[in-house]
């Protein structure tokens, strides 16, 4: 009888701890995405970005839904804003 009570206490504690970690991580992750969305809206010519595919590009023109970027001197492409992973800050 005592072993069953101990097992139930441990199982319940582990489940509660797991939920606290999971929901805490999700909350922090949502807060980290807000500045990214603001940065995407403020992209201007000359900014350097990294795409979700890992390409490092320079912004040529920021349009409503797309961004015209330069991959090198010869290649200019348009990408959707949602495929921008982050902006590279100049140091």
What does this structure look like?
With 91 residues, the chain is an alpha+beta fold. It contains 1 helix and 5 strands, in the order H-E-E-E-E-E. It has one helix at residues 2-41, and strands spanning 48-51, 56-62, 66-70, 76-80, 84-88. It has a 5-stranded antiparallel sheet with strand order 4-3-2-1-5, with helices on one face. Strand 2 and strand 3 form a beta hairpin. The protein is rod-shaped and about 75 Å long. The model has no long low-confidence stretch (mean pLDDT 82).
Can you lay out the helices and strands and say which pair or pack?
Blueprint: H1 2-41, E1 48-51, E2 56-62, E3 66-70, E4 76-80, E5 84-88
Antiparallel strand pairs: 1-2, 1-5, 2-3, 3-4
Could you state the order of secondary-structure elements as H and E? HEEEEE
Tell me the major beta sheet.
5 strands, antiparallel
* Distance from first to last alpha carbon: 64 Å
Using DSSP, what is the number of strands?
5
Rg: 22 Å
Q: Give me the side-by-side strand order of the main sheet.
A: 4-3-2-1-5
Mean pLDDT: 82
Low-confidence stretches: none
Q: Based on helices, strands and strand pairing, what is the structural class?
A: alpha+beta
Number of helices: 1
Oligomer: single chain
Shape: rod-shaped
Task: Give a quick summary of the entry.
The protein has one helix spanning 2-41, and strands spanning 48-51, 56-62, 66-70, 76-80, 84-88. The protein has 91 residues and is an alpha+beta fold. A hairpin with a 4-residue loop joins strand 1 (48-51) and strand 2.
């Amino acid at each position: 009888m005592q072993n069953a009570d101990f097992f139930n206490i441990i199982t319940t504690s582990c489940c509660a701890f797991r939920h606290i970690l999971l929901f805490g991580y999700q909350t922090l992750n949502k807060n980290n995405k807000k500045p990214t969305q603001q940065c995407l809206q403020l992209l201007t010519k000359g900014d350097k970005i990294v795409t979700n595919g890992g390409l490092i590009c320079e912004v040529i023109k920021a349009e409503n839904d797309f961004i015209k970027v330069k991959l090198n001197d010869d290649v200019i492409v348009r990408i959707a804003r949602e495929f921008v992973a982050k902006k590279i800050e100049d140091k």
